[in-house]
Amino acid sequence: MEEKQILAQFEVGFRQHFALSDDEWQSFIDQGKLKLYSKGDVLFSAGDVVDKVGFVCAGTLCNFYLTPDGNRRNKSFLQQGEVSACLSSFARGLPARFGCEVLTDSVCFELPAKALRSLSGSSPGWKDAFLQMVTALALKKEAREADLLMLSPTELYIQFVETCPDLSQSLPNYHIASYLGITEVSLSRIRAKLGLQNAYQRQ
User: Which SMART domains does this UniProt record tie to the protein (predicted)?
Assistant: First the structure.
């Protein structure tokens, strides 16, 4: 797909959610660019000060933590229409505590964090859009924390299948298990208990 087509689709989806004038949209586009990523690429790593914001146009990304002993804990999956950013870097210039990996070939529209800060501070439309984006991130984080504290592993998996059916079928088992906070063996047992016959994926 050509860059113009990708940007056109991005604009349609974005402006369905946020009320921006043509000038506000053009100012945004002028300060960013499309970036193509391949599976396995890393947008940023833990310890980086993340000085950009990425809007996912296509593909699947994953925010993840690495524990001191090297174990991976998947924080969230990002798909079309979602934002790749680190709020602690954006707001306070602090190093990220998590990384962001590309799980499938992806396309993002990226712009410098300072450009988005400037837009949100000088443009009414972008001020509202930025507030909505931050609120959405906060609500997503709150829901994720509540789920991990209140739901059993089986309930977590059922919810994941219901809310992310495409990811539940396409992601390798270790990514799903990491997101749920369980081992691959436990995930297989849950699937067997539920009578699911998903193909075992490791790629």
Answer: cNMP (SM00100)
pLDDT-based confidence at residue 197 (cuts at 50, 70, 90): low
- Determine the structural domain holding residue 181 and report its residue range: 151-202
Residue with tokens 């931050």: 134
User: At 57, phi and psi to the nearest 5?
Assistant: -95, -30
Instruction: For residue 144, tell me if it sits in a domain.
Output: no
Instruction: Detail the DSSP E strand segments found in 81-190.
Output: 83-84, 99-102, 106-112
pTM, entire model: 0.90
In-domain check, residue 145? no
Query: For the chain, how are helix, strand and coil distributed in percent, rounded to 5?
Result: 50, 20, 30
Same domain, 27 and 86: yes
Cα separation, 203 vs 197, in Å, equals 18
Beta strands in the chain (DSSP E): 33-37, 42-44, 52-58, 61-66, 72-78, 83-84, 99-102, 106-112
Residue range 109-125: mean pLDDT, rounded: 95
Dihedral sign for Cα 180, 194, 167, 129, please.
Answer: negative
With CA atoms as reference, report the closest residue to 96 among 63, 59, 72. 63
